[in-house]
Amino acid sequence: MIRLLDETTVGAIAAGEVVERPLSVAKELVENALDAGATRIGVAVTRGGLDALEVTDDGVGIACDDLRLAFARHATSKLARVADLERIATLGFRGEGLAAIAAVARVRLESRTRDSDIGYAVHAHGLDVSQPEPIAAPPGTRVRVEALFANVPVRRDYLRSPTAEFARISSFLAMLGLGYPSVAFNLTHDGRTAFTFPAAGTLDQRLAHVFGTDAARSLVALEPSDGAARVRGFVSPPGVDRGDRRLQLLFVNGRLLRSTLLAGAWSAAYATFALRGRHPFGLLFVDVPPDHVDPNVHPTKSDVRLRFADAVHDVVRRSIARALARDATSRLRDALSFAPPLQATAAAPSQDAGSSNPHAALFGAETSRELAVAATSPDANEVPPGELRILAQLDDTFVLATDGSALVLVDQHAAHERVAFEAIAARARSGTAVQEPLLVPYGIELDADEAERFERSRSALAAAGLEAEPFGERAYRILTTPAGYGARAFDLRAYVADLAEDAGGLDARERVWASLACHSVVRAGERLEHAEMTALLARLVRCKNPMHCPHGRPTIVRIEADAIARMFKRT
Ligand code: ADP
Ligand code: MG
């Protein structure tokens, strides 16, 4: 038998979409407070919100005549007609927050508008809303929610412990607070203060609270950028990362949400920095014109649809990438303790074709002119300020150097990989790669898998100067190599194996170039001449992302003399 459901049941079903757990109640109420222009918001939680949850604000308040209407479904002051859906500037707009909460809990709402001398209170439960009664109250609104899900026992069964439910509220509110630094927030649990964010207008305390003090200090600020979107924020530098994406915080037009699209832009910006399985964190504010975003695609408004999504993706990726490149350069300078003259060096890729020495080809001739890597004799005691003296090669793998106050260790393979990757990518992108024909083309046979991977990377390889042609079934003949690599047998098999690995967020072409770089540079275990080490560092310094190889491993480690002194128990 088919029946029309009664209104109470309809309300409870609709509420299920909006109110899932105490966190949802906190979210709806705090969003209302922000929409009401509050400058102070207090959230008091009792037993994880299972017993009670109360939100107090100093916003515009609700007039007596509107109090009962606020609880009606689809009653809102934020939208008037369908066209308004095109330009939503408030957090709420569906008019179902209060109705949904009242459908599954007992609610008391007190409010006083700024131009009224007294406030009014109503009680709401299910579809019943009491007549407003006058009360003494400060301007603003206080909503108290009790007995959540008392009438929907299944929902209660899904809830975790009060501690776990409170933890969700607490982390949500702290994250939301990052988006509203001029609003004071206060959160208590069972009468004890969990945190207080004053309306200081500074983000520092809030960043430290959410990310931890050290991580917050390491964050790199983005330069505000315009375009399809206005992007501001803070991102973690490469090497400071997490195992998940939970702390990739994103505000789109003031709304805290998850966006697969923008998470992708974030990863893409880190492509040549990030180790597999590690994720950057930080805080992004993306602002787009209200009619370019549709927040009405998700019941709890936790995802949005963007118009011009590709363009927005691009602006976000580029502004993060730019900040990281700037930061990497300054950290390299710190690591090497270089004086400012280095800053003048251009990053233009050079053409090093035609040399028979593979190292010379990659390291190039332009060295000490731009770089103050000291060519002083190794036994000179003084290192001139702003210079780096190469001391030795360790284990045919690491370059040891000093600037006089620290020991600087460079992983020769990682460093060379970075140098080669940037040179290869720059030339391939600008179509200026130089090929070197092989006198004796060499052939290679691949298994079906390898052949497929290789086939897919062939055009990117050709752009980089490596041309190969099919030669029988699943066999290829290598005709040219990128200039400068000729003397170095390109290990095609290792290269193809490497291609199979998922290299973070590198795009397909970059992955090919990263692999090419990896298999065409000096390896660990190769002896380098002093001049080669000097040249390597000179080239590294001019990279856009000098601190990490394309796979995200560090290139340089610095050990301060202080730290060494501690090892000797001198301090
Ligand atoms: P929505 O937020 O989508 O409009 P709600 O059910 O959450 O729907 O709220 C209904 C209406 O009640 C709001 O449009 C607003 O006018 C009013 N309201 C709710 N909470 C507050 C508050 N804290 N301060 C002022 N007005 C409020
Ligand atoms: Mg609302």
Describe what you observe in this structure.
This protein has 16 helices and 24 strands. Strands 1, 2, 3, 4, 5, 6, 7, 8 and 9 form a 9-stranded mixed β-sheet that branches. The chain has a 5-stranded mixed β-sheet with strand order 10-11-14-12-13, with helices on both faces. It has a 5-stranded mixed β-sheet with strand order 17-18-19-20-24. The longest helix has 28 residues, at 309-336. The relative contact order is 0.09. β10 and β11 (230-235) form a beta hairpin. α2 packs parallel to α5 (162-179), α5 runs antiparallel to α6 (204-211) and α8 runs parallel beside α9. The chain folds into 4 domains: 7-197, Heat Shock Protein 90, CATH 3.30.565; 204-335, Ribosomal Protein S5, domain 2 (2-Layer Sandwich); 337-414 and 526-567, MutL, C-terminal domain, dimerisation subdomain (formyl-coa transferase, domain 3); 435-482 and 486-518, Ribosomal Protein S8, Chain: A, domain 1, CATH 3.30.1370. The chain is elongated, with a radius of gyration of 31 Å. With 571 residues, the protein is α+β, with helices and mostly antiparallel strands. The site of adenosine-5'-diphosphate has 23 residues, from α2 and α3.
In total, how many beta strands? 24
Low-confidence stretches: 338-382
Radius of gyration: 31 Å
Q: How many domains in all?
A: 4
Enumerate the distinct ligands. Answer: adenosine-5'-diphosphate, magnesium ion
The CATH class of the largest domain, by name, is Alpha Beta
